[in-house]
């Protein structure tokens, strides 16, 4: 049997770059555990991380935080 899960969106917000990275890592770890527990698999090739900010402002951080899922770094768009 093959199951398909649609889009999974996660929002992590913080104004401090280090705190954001810590929160993001924790949430991704929780997602990994949930997907594994429910026998779901992520297609890493089709999975990406995005950063949002107000259109008239500069990006809040110099670098987008690193996002890794099951040891693989996700592409950034």
Order of helices and strands: HEEEE
Overall number of strands: 4
Q: What proportion of the residues form beta strands (DSSP E)? A: 5-15%
Using the alpha-carbon principal axes, give the shape: globular
- CA(first)-CA(last) distance: 32 Å
Average pLDDT number: 80
Whole-number count of domains = 1
Taking strands numbered 1, 2, ... along the chain, how are they ordered across the largest sheet?
1-4
C-alpha Rg, in Å?
14 Å
* Computed structural class: alpha+beta
Number of helices: 1
Residue runs with pLDDT of under 50 for 5 or more positions? none
Name the helicity range. Answer: 25-40%
Note the main attributes of this structure.
1 helix, 10% strand, 27% helix, alpha+beta, single chain, 77 residues, globular, two-stranded antiparallel ribbon
Question: Explain this structure to me?
Answer:
With about 80 residues, the protein is α+β, with helices and mostly antiparallel strands. The chain has one domain. About 25% of the residues lie in helices and about 10% in strands. It has 1 helix and 4 strands, in the order αββββ. It has one helix at about 15-35; strands at about 50, 70, 70-75, 75. The strands form 2 sheets. A two-stranded parallel ribbon has the order 1-4. It has a two-stranded antiparallel sheet with strand order 2-3. Strand 2 (about 70) and strand 3 (about 70-75) form a beta hairpin. The longest helix has 21 residues, at about 15-35.
């Amino acid at each position: 049997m093959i199951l398909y899960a649609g889009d999974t969106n996660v929002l992590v917000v913080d104004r401090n770059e280090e705190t954001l990275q810590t929160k993001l890592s924790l949430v991704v770890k929780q997602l990994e555990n949930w997907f594994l527990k429910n026998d779901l698999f992520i297609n890493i090739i089709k999975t990406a991380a995005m950063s949002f900010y107000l259109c008239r402002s500069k990006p809040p951080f110099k670098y987008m935080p690193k996002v890794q899922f099951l040891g693989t770094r996700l592409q950034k768009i």
